[in-house]
Amino acid sequence: MDSINRQDGKRILDVTDLRTRFHIAEGTVYAVNGVSFHLNRGETIGVVGESGCGKSVTMMSIMRLIPSPPGEIATGQAYFEERDLLQLSDSEMQDLRGKDIAMVFQDPMTAFNPVLTIGRQLTEPLRVHLGLNKDECRHRAIELLEQVGIPDPSHRLGDYPHQFSGGMRQRAMIAMALACSPSILIADEPTTALDVTIQAQIVELVLGIRADLNMSVIWITHDLGVVAEIAERVLVMYSGFIVEEAPVDDLYEDPRHPYTQALLAALPRVDRRRDRHLQSIPGAPPNLLVAPLGCPFTPRCKFAFDHCRKEMPPIINVATNHTAACWWDVTTGKPR
Amino acid sequence: MADADSRSLPGNSSLVVVDDLKKHFPIHQGLIIEREVGSVKAVDGISFSIQQGETLGLVGESGCGKTTAGRTILGLYPLTAGDVTISGISLTNATKSEMRLLRRKAQMIFQDPYASLNPRWTVSAIIGEPIRVHNLLPNDKSRDERVHDLMLRVGLSPRLINRFPHEFSGGQRQRIGVARALASNPEFIVCDEPISALDVSIQAQVVNLLEELQDEFNLTYLFIAHDLSMVRHICDRVAVMYLGIIVELGEREDLYENPFHPYTQALLSAVPIPDPKRDRERQRIILKGEIPSPINPPGGCRFHPRCPVAMDICTTVVPIYHERAPGHWVACHLYPGSTPGRENSSAVA
Question: How far apart are CA A243 and CA A316, in angstroms?
Answer without folding.
Answer: 10
